[in-house]
Design brief:
This protein is an alpha+beta fold. Helices cover about 30% and strands about 10% of the residues. Bound molecules: zinc ion. This is YhfH family protein.
């Protein structure tokens, strides 16, 4: 079973729509914005 890791690697990396930074560990809520840009204070 070597499928899982490869599967996740093959997933398209999410990028922040605003700054273009890669987004990790985020569910697909909030669209495609990183924590930095998604900060309520900004
Ligand atoms: Zn950003």
């Amino acid at each position: 079973m070597l499928g899982l890791v490869e599967f996740f690697k093959s997933l398209p990396k999410k990028k922040c729509n605003k700054c273009g930074q890669d987004i990790f560990e985020k569910a697909d809520c909030y669209g495609n914005i990183c924590d930095e840009c998604d900060h309520p204070a900004r």
